[in-house]
Amino acid sequence: MISIALIDDHPLAINGIGAWLTGTGRFTIAGKAGTLEEAEELMNRLTALPRIIILDISLGEQDGLDFIPVLKEICAKRNLSIPGILVCSMYEDPFLIKQTIESGANAYVPKSADSHEILKAIDSIMEGNTYINPKYQITMNEQLNLTRRESEIVYLLKRNFNTKQIAKRLFISIRTVENHLANIYEKTGINSKDELKNQQI
Q1: Mean per-residue pLDDT for 34-59?
Q2: Closest CA to 149 of 173, 185, 177, 175
């Protein structure tokens, strides 16, 4: 059977999907975690890493994607292959999905999807492929030429971080965030943070 670890801060969601996956007869649950710290501790504790990790973007105020580089470091130290990463989250914005895949995830399934899509994504990962539902076409216009920092700021804005929170998270000043936003507005033709959050760019 395929071993799976679940990383999500909502007990109802994590227990529900865990019970459903076990009930298919195809999977075993290697462990569960609700924070980045718990996830790291779980990976260090397990003798054998799971084949698949199902990860939420939002872990309270933590960003689930921050777990990916931690996982890579753990695997490098133990000389192990990196498990497949399936991000399952509430967001359905193409830009956020694009950022998720670029961060190292192998698949993205929104929490609004039916259970069969999770199985499809897992099977795709096991076959060595990337999975995104075609209806979430990545519409990011490559000609915008957003820098990595600008992309990070758009990503955080779309997750409802305010300017002060973005500055704190990225270890930059509020003025620097505002300067980046000015550049983003110029490149996208968008004039406000609210419009930027809701626009599929």
Answers
A1: 96
A2: 177
Q: Range of 111's domain?
A: 2-135
Query: Distance between CA 174 and CA 162 in Å, rounded?
Result: 10
- Cα 192 from chain centre: 25
Is residue 100 a contact partner of residue 65, using CB atoms and an 8 Å limit? yes
- CB-based burial label for 50 (10 Å; 0-12, 13-18, 19+): buried
pTM of the full structure:
0.80
The residues that bridge with 131 in the sheet, in sequence order, are 107
Number of other CB atoms surrounding residue 11 within 10 Å: 10
Query: The CATH number of the domain where 158 resides is what?
Result: 1.10.10.10
Tell me the CB-side half-sphere exposure of residue 48, using CA atoms within 13 A.
9
